[in-house]
What we know:
Strand order of the largest sheet: 14-35-34-33-15-27-32-31-28
Keywords: ATP-binding, Lipid transport, Magnesium, Membrane, Metal-binding, Nucleotide-binding, Translocase, Transmembrane, Transmembrane helix, Transport
CATH superfamily of the largest domain: Calcium-transporting ATPase, cytoplasmic domain N
Radius of gyration: 37 Å
Active site: 398
Transmembrane segments: 82-100, 282-305, 325-350, 876-897, 909-929, 958-978, 998-1016, 1028-1052, 1072-1093
Family: Belongs to the cation transport ATPase (P-type) (TC 3.A.3) family. Type IV subfamily.
Number of domains: 6
Helix content: 40-55%
CATH topology of the largest domain: Calcium-transporting ATPase, cytoplasmic domain N
Oligomer: single chain
Structural class: alpha+beta
Amino acid sequence: MGSLLSACGLKKKKKAEENRHLRANDREFNFSFQYANNAIKTSRYNIFTFLPLNLFEQFQRLANAYFVFLLMLQLIPQISSLSWFTTVVPLLLVLSITLAKDLSDDITRHKNDKHVNNREVEVLIDGEVKKEKWMNVQVGDIVKLENNEFVTADLLLLSSSEPLNLVYIETAELDGETNLKVKQALTVTGDLGNDIQRLAAFKGEVHCEPPNNRLDRFTGTLTVSGETLALDNERILLRGCTLRNTEWCFGLVVFGGPDTKLMQNSGKTVFKRTSIDRLMNVLVMFIFGFLAFMCTILSIGNAIWEYQEGESFIAFLPRPDGANASLSAFLTFWSYVIILNTVVPISLYVSVEILRLGNSYFIDWDRKMYHVKSDTPAQARTTTLNEELGQIKYIFSDKTGTLTQNIMTFNRCSINGKSYGDVVDFAGQRVEITEKTEKVDFSWNPLADPKFSFYDHQLVEAVKQGSPAVQDFFRLLALCHTVMPEEKTEGELYYQAQSPDEGALVTAARNFGFVFRSRTPESISVMEMGVPTTYELLAVLDFNNVRKRMSVIVRSPKGRLILYCKGADTMIYERLHPSCSKIMEVTTEHLNEYAGEGLRTLALACKDLDEEKFAEWKQRHHVASTAMDDREAKLDAIYEEIEKDLQLLGASAVEDKLQDGVPQTIEQLAQADIKIWVLTGDKQETAENIGYSCNMLREEMKDIFIVAANTAAEVRKELVNARKKMSPESGDEPPIMKSRLWGKKSQVVEDEKVDGEYGLVINGHSLAFALQKDMQLELLRTACMCQTVICCRVTPLQKAQVVELVKKHKNAVTLAIGDGANDVSMIKTAHIGVGISGQEGMQAVLSSDFSFAQFRYLQRLLLVHGRWSYLRMCKFLRYFFYKNFTFTFVHFWYGFFCGFSAQTVYDEWFITLYNLVYTALPVIALSMFDQDVNDRWSFQYPQLYSPGQLNQYFSKMAFVRILLHSCYSSLILFFIPWAAMNDTVRDDGKEIADYQSFALLAQTCLLIAVNVQLGLDTCYWTAVNQFFLWGSLSVYFAVTFTMYSNGMYLIFTSSFPFIGAARNSLSQPNVWLTIFLTTILCSLPVVAQRFLFIQLKPTINDKVRHKVRQSKAMPLPPPRRFPRRRISTRRSGYAFSHARGYGDLVTSGGFLRIPIKTRPTIFPRSETPVADSTPQTYRAIYQESASS
Length: 1188
């Protein structure tokens, strides 16, 4: 029974865990706790729930529910004035189209789930290692992973093939970082090795925290043979990671499937609807009320008419038994509900789906969003959100892999007061580096990495000439690091760095002749200008977040005792010898210059040590390193003693390569008044650097606030101080606009005026406090005052919480863009989710609404496709409501002339075909192809985007204007033909003032008038528009003459009663004069109003279209601007991984106990990201358009 309920999606949710207890190799014991297995589910429906759930979602559109109600009314003969199939066929069509689309989407999700769940992994079962599907893996199982395999579930690492039971994992799917992390097993489990019998006999018990979304924390204990050992995050391998450079490892499953931290961070799949959809629901409610009001007026009129005049007609219109004026009025009310139902036409929703589908295909087919290198086209993965792309106010972006390529290159350096890396011409002027710029030839160095590129020939000449300062600089880079080398064959070196920054620096030293070859716990071997040299490694003073530097102490072959140190310039400068003041001034200028270009900088220094003082220091260092209490604090104090009176060597500058066109894209989006928030798992310094590189953070900003407090009170204080500085008049209470919609209260925080531009940087620790319920509005107020917000060290769930905060309390449309599994939750939370198909797998793409290969395509998606889609949708709705209200109001006026008898003013066939044939295709063509200006002009004037953010094209007020316009038009379309035909005779003297002739004239006037209005609304004429417009009018006249012919009347007498009406009426000049007059009177106010507004109060669209008409040519692409240098008062921080380094590991000796085996590398030589330093050139979308 439970399985059946589960299949139906009705299974009762189990009680939340308080802690988890499991035993290795004991499925029976673990099953008693009913832990989730390892199967995942991202699909929304199953075979039992698809139809009811999907229909439930569709009937959230009130119009769909309304048409079901209307269908029921039409089945009652006493009140039905139209056939039932006129409602049921369009309704079924709409529901079927949506069902088919949602079914297709969910089948794709089911296939993806099936693919993941059916992956195979080796599991230890009954003493044997067997292949098992991922979905069948249970908590407590021991699994075996091999190199380059995905981690199956959240595992406790037991043992590995590597020395010291280490494993290397790539966590790109979790935190976006592609540099490898190190995990280490406990010694007691590491001794199990790969002995299957001992592993099968292992009965360790784990007590740990319940499933949660904290990626950076794990708390638990392992009990083995009565001994209890502490477990932390360093022992856990998380699902979503990839095993790298490790031959094999064994792990114990702690959390499976939905309980894994990856899935806990994924967020729920929500049913997304656009703001226009939500507005439509409100308008439909109003229309229902308005419809009821009109029907009430007409039914009251019927009651009065029946009471006063009804007796006169009983002779030839006898009443049924028991009928009276009250009953007649009641029945008339429901008859008019059916007749006037065109105020909410079902064809509207059919047309909307077609329109959205067509605009989705335009995105898929856009060659300017196709990435040739990866063969990746843009893809609209949903067809229901296109117009919302034209209303985005806030963009939430990941950093690594989204804004950047996560490829570090050695770009510039300052050595002994001289800057290297620029290319200058004969006049000494700086020259832009392009693909044609001559590279430095490293062929003299057989160990150089061929992918490394550098352009300043002076530096390599200085190295060759033996400059002591230059050689000391690169010697430091070759010695002061924690990189692990691997040399498969002679000369083929691969560096395994904890961060790409370190890899880039060591690779630079390698190419300039100082090649790091190998290391032992006691030595480092390098090749110095072709000479093998081994340094004795005496100590590694490791990096941490407080020190922001690392040092090594080595003894050269000549016996020289040296300390090499590199780190954040602020940390190094505090420890320099006073004699370095002059070189420090020059280096500071260079550092400011590098930081102004967004490069990640480090300062480098060294110091000769005295043997006796070092021996004494070494003893105190040993005592501190073996202390049981406050070990880190004692070591930091010891490090401080020796890291002083340093001699400055220079500074390095590494570029974290941005994706092509990122700065230009951000600049364009900023001009469109779109605010960009960067939410990244990376460290603060890195995020700030990228902020400057992308022009999100600028020196021109009045202030950039850094929130990095450790308590809730301090965070609140910093946020309040920042807000008061930006807006001294702002009150303590946020300006909230309360509203109630659908019975739900909502609090919208209004924008507050700020003079100037500001930036905000907040770290994950502070953000956790700021997102608390009592402080989140303070965070929102402060952040929304800033032009740029950067949140660093945030978890995937915090990303979603930030998006949800803005989404909930700001009347704005949000977009989230990312490329990794760590971005999935915010992509699902935002109104629009965009996935970048990059280096970090396809998780983000699979959860997104739109996807493409490069961040730069976002500006085309929003400023072109999004704006056009919004413009087209709004024009479509305005015109659709206009033509249907006009159509319906003519019925209303006619009621006063037909005794309120619910007689239709038009022929029944015209009523049936009006929305389905006569007016369907022209409005579809308008809404598929119309554009106010082309894509070039859209990029030239990003301000054209702002009307969408303000809902200027379609809103409640716009709807009221449409209502009034329709009312005016309907008065013209009814009373002008009525007056023209009243007591009118033909040329031959015969009377033509009959019902059928009047109906034909009224419907012809209506059709021509709404088509003229369509022409006035069309900005961009195509052959398709012309064909559909004239074709629809031709079809109308052809169908009219056919249906009103003698032949149709003779064949279907009861269905085609209007015999001869067309040829009799349309042959009269006064009929055509009446058509012309009504058309002019309907169009005149529209033309006059537009003329006056363009002259007196032109919109941004009017101004740009005027410029387009005046311009004789397309706007030229903007000239390629060389990045403007800025002198910065702020320099980038320590450009290394946030985690503690490998210092303890490289000096432990343990990592050499097992011979290092030849292992496959992460990247082939040709794809080494660290060494790939081809120059970064930005290409604006304008240039791309011109070239394509």
